[in-house]
Amino acid sequence: MGINEFEKGKKFSFNQDIDYASKAIVSKNIIKKETGNISLFAFDKGEALAEYTTPYDAVVYIVDGKAEIIIDGNSNILDAGETIVMPGNVPHAEGCRAI
After folding, report:
1. Which residues of the chain are modeled with pLDDT < 70?
2. In the beta sheet, which residues pair with residue 52?
3. N or C: which end of the chain has fewer CB within 10 A?
């Protein structure tokens, strides 16, 4: 197990097992494979990822707070507890901006 991964076979909590960092984005791998990844991100308010495209669908679930998710130029505002699927081969900004 890498230092930036959740331990397999042990329970964990999205809310408790990653910390926010001032003016930063913190990420931790849940599963990392050639066929796709599942990652947990913690965005400080105002932080963003650049737009990109992946060959597979991506799921965003907002654990805490609020975020703007941009898919193919269209803005989606998600609150804690909400989910959106970003389709593969379509430009998106995952967790684009914590608000």
Report:
1. 1-3, 94-98
2. 92
3. N
